Amino acid sequence: MDLFGNPLEPLRDRRGRPSFKKNKENQDFVAVRAAANWSQERIAEALGCDPKTLRANFSRELSGGALIVEGLCLDVLMRRTREGHVPSLRALQDRMDRTAPPAPKAKGKAQEDQAGKDVPAPIGKKEQRLEGAQKPDAEYGDLYDRIRPQ
Questions:
Q1: I need a surface site. Which of 55, 65, 133, 149 has the fewest CB within 10 A?
Q2: What would you report as the CA-atom Rg of the chain, rounded to the nearest whole angstrom?
Q3: To which H or E segment does residue 66 belong?
Q4: Do the Cβ atoms of 45 and 38 come closer than 8 Å?
Q5: pLDDT in tens, 29-85
């Protein structure tokens, strides 16, 4: 009862803006549009929230949207490949050929390849000096040219 004797009734509606609810569907929505290079203002408008709310709730999706979408595509391709879907297998192989680094060579084969080639090893500074000491110059002018200026 209130001061006038009337029964208390709950408020019919909550005052203010309703709080934003983040769910998996919204996360995918933001990630796909971030991967498509939409601006944050455009994504917020399409989602129906403020850009500040978008940045607060979806910072991970905004920064890594392309990676998230790429990962989802790879997951779908892998699942379809396991089911035996041949076009998915080809698409997955093409994608791996484009993005995967080349396979490393076996250590034994790399040494065999180097042993087969007759490429002289580069001469270091010490070896050059030792060779120069074995063959001294005969004239004084050549000797003075080798002395470093101070």
A1: 149
A2: 36
A3: helix 59-82
A4: no
A5: 999 999 999 999 999 999 988 999 999 999 999 999 999 999 999 999 999 999 999
